[in-house]
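Researcher: Last one for today. Full complex below.
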Amino acid sequence: MKRELPIAITFICAFILTLQYFIPHRSFEIMYEISNIWIQIIGVFAMILGIISLIMLHWEKIKHKKENWGFSIVTLASLVGMSLVGLIASENSPVFEWLYNFILAPISATMFALLAFFIASAAYRAFRARTVVATILLLAAVIVMLGRVPIGSLISFGIFPKMAEILVNYPNVAAKRAIFMGVGLGAAATALKVMLGIERSYMGSD
Amino acid sequence: MSTDPGIWLAAILTLCIFSFLYKDNPFYKFVEHLSVGVSAGYWLVIIIRQSLKQTFLDPLIQGQWQLVPGKLGIFLLIFPAFMGILLFTRFSNKWAYIARYPIAMLWGIGVGASIPLSLQNYIIRQLQATMVPITFNSWEDVGSLFIAIGVITGLVYFYFSKEHKGAFGGAAKVGIWILMIGFGSTFGFTVMARVSLLIGRVIFLMKDWLGIIS
Amino acid sequence: MLDGIKNLPIVFLLSIIIIFPIQAIAGEGQTKSKLPNLTIEKVMDTPNDHGRSITIIWKKPSFDSSFAIPTGYKILRADSLRSNFDSVEFVPIGKSKSFDIQNIEDGKTYYYRIGYANTEIISNIAGPVQAKGNWFHTGKTTTFVVTILFCALTLGILIFARRGGELYIRPISGINAIDDAIGRATEMGKPILFVPGLGAASDVATIAAFTILEHIAKITAEYKTRIIVPCYAPETMIVAQEVVRASYLDAGRPDLYNDKEIFFITQEQFPYTAAVNGIMLRDRPAANFFLGKFYAESLMLAETGFEAGAIQIAGTDEAIQIPFFVAACDYTLMGEELYAASAYLSKDPMKLATLKAEDWGKAGVIIFLIIGVVVASVFGSDFFIRLLDVNVM
Amino acid sequence: MGIFEKIIKLDRRIIFLVIFLSVIFPLIFKVNIPINITPEVRNVYNLIENLPEGSVIVVPCEYAPDTMAELEPMLYAVLRHCWEKNLRVVACGFYVTGVTLIEQEIKYMAKQMNKKYGKDYIFLGYRPYPAAVINSMGEDFRQSFPTDYYGTPLDSLPMMRGVKNFNDTKLVLTINATSGVDYWVLFGHERYGFPLAIGVTAVMAADYYHYLNSGQIVGIIGGLKGAAEYESLVHHKGLATMGMSIQSFVHLVIVLFIIIGNIAYFVIRKRKGINR
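Model: Here's the assembly. Have a good evening.
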């Protein structure tokens, strides 16, 4: 029961859903929809466990006055505040939307924008012609970068844009396809391992 | 300069995050912790309001599940909730193994149709896109041949059953070169999108907040 | 009068004689007579669907562009040949010459005609037809065959491995780096950070990451090194906790296992990234593992980790993100290497056997690709290309 | 530690600062990097440039906020050109999510250019079924649009007097992020023969060049770069030119950093070689 039942559950669920992919009949479509809803409902309880974990983590920090414990108060307070607004009013209430639009959205957008800086620092550090492979990486990146902007076209009489186009349309496509094919086989094999109970790291060995 | 408190709040948060570029500091720490709390709260609300209420509680209270009518429907609705509750057995040492059942189910459903789907999208479709007649009537055919060779050598690179030696090693080497050209181009290609995001934030600060550019 | 093919010419002549003058009189603004006839080519149960739908295909009329073109077609339906045809659908004029009529009761018989909207011109009667659900999607036949082949191949190799067959797998670069990184963290007395990515717990990349986590946790249990696992999805947290707990148990050190080191942060991309950045800068792990599904945050994590001075090992099957990991990390498991590494590290013959099956698959793909290209180029036949047709609609 | 060692171990905050400055600098000082004009954009410009004053052109806009970053500057540049030439603009949209956005953009631009509604431009608003609407517009605009977006009958708008269908217009220029482009080519240009130009996102542009080669369209304005080209043709550098200038600066700075890093790397490697 400790090992066999979970493996059986996994197998049955995965097998039915695999079959479902080939069977358009309404009965299988309903099974697919049910499985989606099951995932959602189990997900609610997983989320509760997650939130408990988050609260515990910060509560411990506050209780033991660990380093930066003051910031843990910020997290807990904002968690409670946001949840209360959303649960008492609704997820469509103006306050909830305001909090989303003026706190979460700008923070996410700015974090995302930091990438403009990191992409520059990573390029500076990584693109050194140490080896043949590194040189190829460097050249391809530089050509495509220059080919994408007007100034690159200006300084090369239109050669960089053409080269960039060729690089993006051919070697880049070849590389992506090779990776996709490897990933496709690997993903199918991993899924099969999970179905057959070969991959069951969550169960340990007892 | 803006008089909207929302814009001011957003602008201050934006600056706090940019300060991280200099070094880790209390302003960044504050925003980091704030964003974690707000986003976790946001998702909690969305999940409770939508997954729990709309898909679970509402049909349960009505005693009628649209997808599967009748008593069977109600059973099929309560069953995953029961499985979800089993997750909490993890806190007991004796019964902890029971939590494996819902996890097994999550894995099974999650993995679901990935075998046919990954074979179809990653193998069959890619293979078909690569398999084009090459008659050297145009320059595009040279490109197609290049792609075919690139795919083959790339796959050789990912071949694990044989060491990269001799002609096989040579092919693998060509494969890694082509992979690197691909990576370099992806890198170079992405710069523009990332810079656009930065421009967006800077324009927000200078136009919407400070109003120094129009 | 209509019950014989013999009579058709007469009917045709009669209609010309009768309709033409009427048309001419009706004239003015009405351009009905200039509209081409409509013919239903086929009406059938919509193939490869769940039922409750009928597909109607007609011959696409070619319009005389000097006259007004109708805005659309109307589709008419009757339960029997004797009852009236009622308009049930409107299809705007466009490129289409077929239409799926939805929400039809399965198993009920219908007859159809189509006509131009706002005109009297209608087509022949087509039918009878019934809607029904299908038990096999013929458009996915290729996928089905490939799936069966792949599963059979894998099972065959698994049986071979179980009987003790030898399977050689070459060393994968970057794998030794994993153990080295853990060793270094232990020496420095610093923790290890393991980020299982933004995928769901059942994403194959995450599953591969769990297997590597299992390997890492066994070593950290042995060395008493602290391991931190911040999680993006609650399910990932639950599975990661199980994996680490089991590994510590395996290593004989269940006492060292700490549930609180494997925690949930938040399920929103950038707040999560912000928090992991914070961990890297404040807890100063000596080794960072980024394994699983990653998106735009890949570079942000890797750059911050580099700044914090950690050894970084990344692995993802997300093709777009590999370049950023390659640029900013010490070792990167690219695409399939992530899965391979997890099989390789486990040393489980069953897992190695599936890796072997992947290799067979690759060999098959290469051979098939070469044959397909040669046949298409030299013999001008697209047989192999068509063989790969998949139609999921 | 020599200068090259310092360069190799450059504090990344210096890179951050330079990147930041190269975003700010063009924005504040309005530095513009010259943009080479591609023939497909120049074609569109020339066509509009050579239209007689008072000609009517139809500008169907089909995009939503998600693609507005690329297409809004394009619409502004085109409208500026048309109104500078005193052309009359008939705008419409077949993409429901974008209608309010487009209405605001056109209004904004009209205000900038001091143009009057009903005299210099009208906005027809949204109708579903693009193919059918294009067909009926080929007969008479009033068939699908008896009134404009605001409910005013077309006949009571001064500029629509004497404008019946595509025969009375000189050009259709669709600014489009949807597959609606195909409808304009197949049901519009093919049937009614009007000259057609398109403005699309950078990603889409590649797919529509074949229409250019086959002569079904007179030109393509593609993405932010195309918009920037148009801006420089009408001598009014706006957001697109600004964006492209910033992009040019940042890309160039990154490339320069890479080059400097490599020079330092090779110098040090050579030095080490000699010492050995």
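Chain D touches chain A at residues 10, 12, 15-16, 19-20, 23, 33-36, 225, 228, 244, 247-255, 257-258, 261-262, 265-266 (CB under 8 Å). The longest helix of chain D spans residues 239-275.
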